[in-house]
């Protein structure tokens, strides 16, 4: 039963997506119920499997010990797949409202639901080879979502996404090949698989850096991050998935598996990765934040923010203290909830008004009080203000840096909070405190003229199918901030096994 369920969770969304694409000539009335049903059922199965069979495992193909395809569930997989499947449900319903007036619905929803199955395959992978196969599949099934608009700009962004992803894949694969002589197999183990002394530390350091940077491309590791900015041409629900759930968090998940389940804590500590990666990741945090401050396009500003926030997660993982790892792992969850909410809010502004720039949204908060109120809460959370969930992440990261006697890293985390405020607060200030320009807006919904921005009596709130996910996700930020034990209990179990 658990083995069947493990396969069903992955392949049911893939089959549903292929079904949507196959039935495309027969109309599009079926794609919404199939998509909604598949995402909700998938989340329920993930939850049931994690609660009832937390160690489920199955081998799909065992032609060679090194290249076997196998699935398993452990605490790290439960954390990742629960997060992915839950946020995919919210994204699905938001998408129903946002994409109503877009073209090529069946193609979009087909690949949208296939991507869910592939992402869960990454989370359930029992070994590095299986993870790599699903990891690469994710590149190709998300490509049609990135280029959905079909414009020259979208195709250019898609090409860049493929080039960067394949380069990272090649680098990671090279590292895997070089690591093969040191391993019996690629299966994940809580204490890692690599043994010290089999080869020189310099060799292990080289291979680790190749794999970390290779898998890190999907996590927008600096300086291989620019694909993420180009991908902003995609519809907002895709941007939200790329930045909060599917692609970048799959990259972070792969980095976690490589660091702690292949190399292991003791080996990573012995080969002394901190001096090499902390500088790179520190630059990633600072540059991402500074570029966000100077960016006027709202979606691109959030894209730069994602680069910086992913740096927080990576830094937490490589500082190798209990609190830093805890902060990095919980920020995987907290950043996902925060960033998807921010993107949904900005997407709602674009959907309802067609406005995409900071200078165009003066006074918008008066006409979108719920949407911009949720944006404000999420912005405060990303800054690390209590009692929101972002504070839990940032506090553990700072304490973890101090535990490692990394004073500069602690200062970086604290300073990063001020940089976060410097690129998010201007949006809040423009929305609520600045006077709108006396110009006519065009509704992105039907193209009809709508009242001037100064008319406070006219609401621009989106349809409920879009607004409810935004409000619910914002409430989740409060819940995860007030009751962090919901996630920390699972994370503490992960840390106990890997340290």
From TrEMBL:
InterPro entries: ComplexI-like_HydComp, ND/Mrp_TM, Proton_antipo_N. Residues 66-109 form the NADH-Ubiquinone oxidoreductase (complex I) chain 5 N-terminal domain. It is a multi-pass membrane protein. The chain crosses the membrane at residues 6-23, 35-56, 76-96, 108-126, 161-183, 203-228, 240-262, 274-293, 302-320, 332-352, 364-386, 406-433, 467-491. Coiled coil: none annotated. The keyword Chaperone does not apply. It is found in: Cell membrane; Membrane. Pfam families: Proton_antipo_M (PF00361), Proton_antipo_N (PF00662). The keyword Cell division does not apply. GO terms for molecular function: oxidoreductase activity. GO terms for cellular component: plasma membrane. Keywords: Cell membrane, Membrane, Oxidoreductase, Transmembrane, Transmembrane helix. Residues 125-420 form the NADH:quinone oxidoreductase/Mrp antiporter transmembrane domain. Its main location: membrane. It comes from the Bacteria. Belongs to the CPA3 antiporters (TC 2.A.63) subunit A family. This is Multisubunit sodium/proton antiporter, MrpD subunit. It comes from Natronincola peptidivorans.
